[in-house]
Please model this.
Amino acid sequence: VVPSVAMRPLLMIPGPIEISPAVQAAFGGPPTSHVAPDFIERCGRSLERMRAVWAASSDSQPFILAGSGTIAMEMGACNVVGPGDRVLLVNTGFFSDRMATMLRRRGATVDEVTAPVGHAPSLDAVRQALEGGDYRALFATHVDTSTGVRADAEGLARLANERELISVFDGVCATGAERFEMEAWGADVYLTASQKAIGLPAGLALLVMSPRALRAREALAQPPPMALDVQEWTPIMRAYEERRPSYFSTPATNLVSALDVGLGEILETEHRGHEGIEARWSLHAAAADAMRAALSSLGLSLLPEANLAANTLSAVRYPKGVDASLVGAIKAAGVVVAGGLHPACKAEYFRVGHMGHSATQREHLLRTIEALGSALAGCIAGVDGDAAALAAGAVLDGRQ
Ligand SMILES: *Cc1c(COP(=O)(O)O)cnc(C)c1O
Model:
């Protein structure tokens, strides 16, 4: 018997996250063959739904693989870049560092544009760097989960597109929650994992590639590892979309069934007059605004610069006199949040996820704020958790 969410702590970290009952039911079904007709239907529909969630063109190619976000990053990187290629990486934190290491291991020369922790390099700085080198690709992290900083993905994608450079965006903490218009902005690779804003358990690597990205793979002198090669996977994904059986490497069948349901929920969202993925973006912006109203009412401040703060998580500085033991006190009050992650300052802040299913659940957001309020009240006199919850509620109701 699975304990109900009222009896166990609420999982409000930046992934894995709480999942909806329908997603959990789909995931918990009996195992199925990867060539069973109903599985083929669910997988084919998931690929079609990915294009809608990614706002990608009809000639883009979605991929669903068993794996984590890091596998999706590796697949995105090694199919468009080969040994000796020069790439520019916009570095906003921990996961940008990881991508730089991956690219160097692939034999690429990686130039980085950096910014202080909590900031992002300006578009001008990136433009200038691009002028200084003969680059093959531009890499960026859409939302850096270590700092809660959101990059200007549209600006970066358009900069790369104007120069006919491949652009690759790590969307692991963003896809399905933060605005990303793959086709309109001319982005080439947008990747994520199932346990973040897509709203599934961990275990799927998800990416969509543009026709230009697929051509970049064809032009590589040194192929990527076989298990990550889009040339192996493209015929398989096409077969599923055409509702034909195929096999290269067994898909995570239960997770793909859950993906069909999870993407369906995303596309059925309605919010403030919007529908589909637009509504999902709008809903996450409202949840983030509500969380920020509560945090500010509690006297807390964010690690990222205000105009760069992501909608999927909040990276919050510990107030004076409070340390990382606050995370344990919040858990004792019924909500799991995460500690800091950026090596330069991880003892100075904690992180609260507010994406996916929980962004749709007022009760999850308010329970999180109440737990935070009561944990803080144990350290600081005069903290008013009720006022913080009221401030958040007003934003969620559109009254503020
Ligand atoms: C979580 C995350 C990853 C890594 O995903 P794993 O599933 O842990 O491998 C990569 N990039 C970003 C931005 C993330 O948030």
